[in-house]
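Supplementary Note 3. Input sequence used for the single-chain structure prediction.
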Amino acid sequence: DTSVYTVTYTVELNENNALEVVSTTITKGDTPADAIVFTNSYDPDPAVVSEGTGNAISVNKTLTGRELKADEFTFDLYWVEGDKEVLIDTATNDADGNVVFGPVEHASTGVWNYVVKERGAGNTVDGVTYDTSVVDVTVKVTDEGYDGKLDATVEYSQDRTFENSYEAKDVTDVILPVKKELANRELRDGEFSFELYQDGKLIDTTTNDVNGDVRFKGLTFTEADQTVTYTVKEVKGTDKTVTYDDTVYEIKVSVTDNLKGQLEAKVEVVNDEDGDNVATFSNTYTEPEILVPDTSDNNITLLVSIAAACATGLMITLILKRKIRHN
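The predicted structure, written as discrete structure tokens, is reproduced below.
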């Protein structure tokens, strides 16, 4: 206290001829006062709950199924006052999964209750399922030693790890690009047959439609970061008017994760010569030759002679049969 008091004593000689204080006045500055009172105040610095003071409110984030990225998930810190929750801070995770709030100041002693929640709790977004956990936090503020600074301790009522999981959906109905062409005549539905192999094993057969589309059953892939190789060939038929394509196509399917909850498949026809990424089998139809009798003079004479000989032989046979019957 910086106050200055002035005390004035009035002194007189009494009947015994001795000095005696007959009155006392007190002033504080220019103001009369009843007593001399010095008032000091104690105002300690607030307790700071932060990373810098080593006692920050913090939680952990884990993600299974893929790598965790910095600032990927958001968390809210609420001060709990009775039935009310008041948002006081927001934080995101770092690449190691650390989530640190603060600084949060407390200017008086006491017990303060908080909760931490993850945004999106219970939802599944882009393949990530969010944790529904709620972490209870208690901050106790004391004034140990009255050293001019409040002290704070942070306690957690349960495990403070939020566990999210990631899973990408299968990629399904992947169609291999296969086409049939036939030169010199119209293509018929189901006319040509095709075989699909994986690792040398026959896994599917199909035929073309009238438009030349060759559709094997759709393929399903359940794992990312893989490349599967298939081979496709045409079954050689017996139609002698058709020249069959003996090309064996190699088709690769590369499966990746788009990291948004979906596997994706890229199809590549390795030995595609046209550059259209389609395995095209090209057959050729050739008209069959029609035999026409030779009508030259020499051939006509020969045919007449042969016919006459056949007729003579037939007559002799009939005569012999009659003689045998009469005998």
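The first strand starts at residue 5 and ends at 13. The radius of gyration is 52 Å.
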